[in-house]
Fold:
Amino acid sequence: MKEYVTKRFKELIENATKKDLEVLTAIFEGLKSEDNAKSPYVNRLYHFEREIKDNTITMTMPISPIVLNSIGITHGGVIATLIDTAIGTLANVTVAPEGNAAVTTDISVRYLRAAKGGKLTCEGTILHKGKKTMVLEGKVYSEDGTLCAHSTGNFFIIPRPQS
Structure:
């Protein structure tokens, strides 16, 4: 596998555009980051950073070429991933009882404005904590404070799988 990856990488580098190189650099920086070594790959790929305080979460991500769609704005699927990751993290860290995990059962995202600028911030809060389910809310803001997306997500509490 290592030989295949090396060969493909060399082929890619030979024909890479400036934008290709920017994307590859961002990927490499996320993968090699020792601060994120235990983070899921999706968090590392998109350079998510989080802060949890008083049952709320703030998760940020830079807007880079890897997250843009074909018309040059942040891809809606990436915004949904930011929201799901943020509120899912909040559900797991603050709500799920020890030995359990919270998993998304459904999520609804409403896109309000194009997400542009240098970074996006998702603010997540808990709306309902039950014994088996919970509901959380996520709001995504562009760098200038404009609300870009609003979401609610339902989570089910399950026994944490053994690693």
